[in-house]
Write a structure and sequence with these properties.
Blueprint: E1 3-8, H1 11-15, E2 22-27, H2 36-44, H3 48-55, E3 65-69, E4 78-83, H4 92-108, E5 113-116, H5 126-140, E6 145-150, H6 152-155
Parallel strand pairs: 1-6, 2-4, 2-5, 5-6
Antiparallel strand pairs: 3-4
Helix pairs in contact: 4-5
Length: 163
């Protein structure tokens, strides 16, 4: 199993990700403006993600994927963006599927260490988000390190996590 660390959502958390191969963002088709980590990343990249969304190349639909370079604007060199579909309709099953799919794609891309924020949305509470990570992402990701960008309430629900 991968080593998992936790980091605060925000610029400080993003800047603390040294030694991480990739960042995995989850973006829904109804995310405008971009929330949480995706919004911070978009700001740091001078609106690149917003422009891609506006141009229609990536829409955030379920199973939509995008790979962006950070061009040195973040500690992480590669940014994988996963479409969630409609965030307001995201449920436990959809979350687990999205996290498992992300784990598989990141593993195929030979990502050894990844940072990600567990998506929120719909009627998902923190317990469902923690369970989605444990049952969806953890078994699918073959890398050695996961850096979770999380808020304090969710950290308490993740077993055995180190900050």
């Amino acid at each position: 199993m991968s080593q998992t660390t936790t980091h605060d959502i925000g610029m400080e958390g993003l800047d603390s990700l040294s030694g991480v191969d990739a960042l995995c963002l989850f973006v829904a088709q109804d995310d405008r403006p971009l929330p949480a980590t995706a919004g911070y990343v978009d700001w740091r990249l001078c609106g690149v993600l917003s422009r891609v969304l506006k141009g229609g190349f990536f829409s955030g639909e379920k199973d939509d994927w995008l790979l962006l370079p950070s061009d040195g604007k973040l500690e992480v060199p590669r940014i994988f963006v996963v479409g969630l579909g409609a965030r307001r309709q995201l449920d436990s099953e959809g979350l687990q599927e999205a996290l498992a799919g992300a784990g598989k794609v990141l593993s195929r891309a030979k990502v050894a260490s990844v940072a990600l924020e567990i998506p929120a949305g719909g009627a998902l509470d923190d317990a469902a988000r923690a369970e989605g990570f444990q049952k969806g992402f953890v078994p699918a990701f073959k890398g050695g390190r996961v850096a979770l960008l999380v808020d304090k309430a969710l950290v308490r629900l993740l077993p055995g996590r180190k900050g």
